[in-house]
Amino acid sequence: MIDTVYFEEDASNYSATNQIRLALPDANWIPIDRFQEIFNIRTQNFRIQKKNPALIIAKKHDNFVLPAPSGFGMGSDQNFYFSHMYNCLYDCGYCFLQGMYSSANYVLFVNYEDFFEAISETIHLHKNETQTYYSGYDCDSLAFDKISHFSGYMLNFFQNFPEVEVELRTKSIVISSLLMRNPIKNCVIAFSLSPDSIAKKLDNKAPSIRRRIKAIKELSEKGWPIGLRLDPLIYTHDWKLKYSDLISDLMKQVDLCNIHSVSYGLLRFPKRMYKKISNLHSETGLFAFPMEENKDLISYSEEIENDMYSFIQKKLRAYLPEIKIFHCSN
Ligand code: SF4
Fold it and tell me: Which of 51, 58, 183, 269 is deepest in the core (most CB within 10 A)?
């Protein structure tokens, strides 16, 4: 439970802030001028702070919508992402956020309408091209939803733009708000998945794979388009068996017609973050296996990459047409 909430005074009158006041009445609410004065303190220790993060409620002023990194898309001409939140309830051993931020506190930008205004301008600007918008790049899209209620606002917005797609990427099973409404065909609920034994070791605090698959099944039966994200692919001595079991389990349980897309990508880290993340999680064994530098990324060797990619592609092609399978490299 969150027991400290810092709030920018500029952000205190938004409806999301009022909803959070109701959800966290016993927290200590502390006014601040700008979120950076708490979030950017240099001497913070991410691991210590992760044990009991505070929530920082802020107003975002620019960069509401940004081009997605190359290699991130699912076939659209234009790909964008937006981040209404920094940091995550979960604590995955490979999460790049811990290399990006010195603070584990959650920052929530509550001026949701400003995001939607910027997104509608971007949609208009690229109206002659196919477009996908990604939520959940700097956080998990649904994990904080009981407090932020962001997904409801977002889906209300995107259902008015059926010509573009939006993806909510998550490991959360907080899906009741989705099950209560009719599915929106241009809104893809995308779950990040690993084989169960790998998730048990690395996806700290996140729901088990069994519970994620159950949530996927429920959403799919309701008619929501489902994304399956096998990303990052993690190498172990028996990875073929593990990924083979995961893929066949998923394909057995989920109606293939409701699978919008499956993507996969190797475990990889931006070079500038690798050292910090590997120091924070030296106990997991994840970093014991030698990795190589390739341009600005650190990842497995080309031999492992080719082996994993061809195996995963082959497995997926047994169930799905090529057009639904994507390789993510960034
Ligand atoms: S769910 Fe995603 S954002 Fe959250 S800790 Fe895990 S990798 Fe990071």
Answer: 58
